[in-house]
């Protein structure tokens, strides 16, 4: 095998990863927990080709050639070669890598996680690497280790100095909680993106809350949310998810100088979800926010139509439905007058939410068997170039 | 003496009070530190009159009669009577109280602190109470205890169950750091005010960060900021002040459900101050935010003109200078091209900052001797009524 194409999913943390105890090995300060997004709607796709005729290693990301001399990339390559099956000539050949995402960078969803997971998974196929590869993906981009497996995943912080026990494992499969849906609300935002690598480093150096979180808060939350997911206890799952998102953003504010990923639209979404949950007297929706203003809402399939109708009521939009709704189609539902009357949040200006993307929990990284799907042609050159 | 009129200042915390360990006695979870604002520009003013002919206790706030049956008010009255000089007949008479603030509620500055300090101070004069009265003011409104003294004040959390050691003391006088100025930037905001009493209660119940702050962070900060103020070490003072404000707002976000007093204008002010401090390579300005979006900037007199010019450059306003500038007059200065070029923050929309109020550090509560200043006429009726 000298060519392989793979896809890998995006994942969304419900217990957040923020802060490294070792920057080189990318070892986190605490465990994190994530759901894997369905790879059908949102994924990285990577073709890796090895050939004795290639003069050098090359990589193209989203149609544009990038330097292979990226320390993280080289770190992954070195480990993959060490783990390759002995006697495999392929590891001595140069490789060409071509990778693309099918979701806009504007979505603010961690593309590097899916990207590195896909790259490591694909090269592991090529080199016939056996055993765990999440620890290798971790060295590309921390949360990439959570995009190898599907379903519900735990990234164990590990305790060994060499990081060999800092790996990700699945604790609940795709088929476990099939009613779960995730709505990503992509928020309009014109602020500069604040790098999460820089932010983590700064929080680790200056926020005493971050240390307290890692030492005294997360361990219990991880145990409780795993239990809640295993028991399909939505109430507990939702409360921990929301609290953990809030705590992560609290740490950003406790960092010096402070920074804030949430904007006023994010804050209004938070208020709206609490108002909606209060209306029912129990959590029906959980929000979580990563390093940006976009909301990820976890909820059960049956509640999607009403929640989407409520969002559209508070955040009106002129965008045509075909553009506004992405992923799993949303069934239309009218809001009850009672709900409208009880939600004490004013209608916002038009266009604050760009679009809504619905997905469910899906499988992990996988090989694409159809040869037409390769992103490189027979000479190892991208079929599409920018 | 059967009539007395007093004034009491506003105070601004640089180490924040957030969370009570006893709700009835208003005992805080941690020490706090504040600067007293000059009473000339912003103050509560209260006239208290006692007469054997008054049929009942009465109180007017800002020209409007309110109920005297307020538990906090009654709590203060009870303590003041217990502490009155023996044989003083006045304590058996009913009283009329008339109080007004000379600053708009819109300023979002804790009017209850100045109000209760003034009320307690005035009644203490009438009853010839001797010794500390900050512990009594505390029972009206926690931070009122910091508005009795001038200069720089420490509210000691205390450790006794009856709260008798939870009092405020001055540790640096008005004449100690005369170069210090405070600019309050009053921010336009149309959100509902989120009650600080409710917020504190909720943070105490749900935020593990609040407990960690009280147990492990504040004690050292208090020692260090007192040292910095005593040594006029602006750099250390500024850094602790900003960190403590950020930490308080981080706790609001770590509270469940979360709430946020800072809005996008507040966040832009924070960015602007950090950019300005970075330009000089040392803190020249410290921001602090209470339970609202308005910024309080601490800085030295010599830096006021440039900082105000910078604020006006980034936050343009159409308001006439006579309306826009309140308190100590600001001298006009042009911004250097170098500073303008280096501050990488876009000019904001007009009108985001309503006005700027400049003050310095001033004296505490005091008696007004001029009889024309009484707010009640000879019959004990307010001279001005709404």
From TrEMBL, chains A, B:
<dbReference type="Pfam" id="PF22700">
    <property type="entry name" value="MVD-like_N"/>
</dbReference>
<dbReference type="GO" id="GO:0006695">
    <property type="term" value="P:cholesterol biosynthetic process"/>
</dbReference>
<feature type="domain" description="Diphosphomevalonate decarboxylase-like N-terminal">
    <location>
        <begin position="8"/>
        <end position="168"/>
    </location>
</feature>
<keyword id="KW-0753">Steroid metabolism</keyword>
<keyword id="KW-0444">Lipid biosynthesis</keyword>
<comment type="pathway">
    <text>Steroid biosynthesis; cholesterol biosynthesis.</text>
</comment>
<dbReference type="InterPro" id="IPR029765">
    <property type="entry name" value="Mev_diP_decarb"/>
</dbReference>
<keyword id="KW-0152">Cholesterol biosynthesis</keyword>
<feature type="domain" description="Mvd1 C-terminal">
    <location>
        <begin position="182"/>
        <end position="367"/>
    </location>
</feature>
<keyword id="KW-0456">Lyase</keyword>
<dbReference type="InterPro" id="IPR005935">
    <property type="entry name" value="Mev_decarb"/>
</dbReference>
<dbReference type="GO" id="GO:0005524">
    <property type="term" value="F:ATP binding"/>
</dbReference>
<dbReference type="InterPro" id="IPR014721">
    <property type="entry name" value="Ribsml_uS5_D2-typ_fold_subgr"/>
</dbReference>
<comment type="similarity">
    <text>Belongs to the diphosphomevalonate decarboxylase family.</text>
</comment>
<dbReference type="GO" id="GO:0019287">
    <property type="term" value="P:isopentenyl diphosphate biosynthetic process, mevalonate pathway"/>
</dbReference>
<dbReference type="GO" id="GO:0005829">
    <property type="term" value="C:cytosol"/>
</dbReference>
<dbReference type="InterPro" id="IPR020568">
    <property type="entry name" value="Ribosomal_Su5_D2-typ_SF"/>
</dbReference>
<comment type="function">
    <text>Catalyzes the ATP dependent decarboxylation of (R)-5-diphosphomevalonate to form isopentenyl diphosphate (IPP). Functions in the mevalonate (MVA) pathway leading to isopentenyl diphosphate (IPP), a key precursor for the biosynthesis of isoprenoids and sterol synthesis.</text>
</comment>
<dbReference type="InterPro" id="IPR041431">
    <property type="entry name" value="Mvd1_C"/>
</dbReference>
<keyword id="KW-0752">Steroid biosynthesis</keyword>
<keyword id="KW-0443">Lipid metabolism</keyword>
<keyword id="KW-1207">Sterol metabolism</keyword>
<protein>
    <recommendedName>
        <fullName>Diphosphomevalonate decarboxylase</fullName>
        <ecNumber>4.1.1.33</ecNumber>
    </recommendedName>
</protein>
<dbReference type="InterPro" id="IPR036554">
    <property type="entry name" value="GHMP_kinase_C_sf"/>
</dbReference>
<dbReference type="InterPro" id="IPR053859">
    <property type="entry name" value="MVD-like_N"/>
</dbReference>
<keyword id="KW-0547">Nucleotide-binding</keyword>
<keyword id="KW-0067">ATP-binding</keyword>
<dbReference type="GO" id="GO:0004163">
    <property type="term" value="F:diphosphomevalonate decarboxylase activity"/>
</dbReference>
<dbReference type="Pfam" id="PF18376">
    <property type="entry name" value="MDD_C"/>
</dbReference>
<keyword id="KW-0756">Sterol biosynthesis</keyword>
<keyword id="KW-0153">Cholesterol metabolism</keyword>
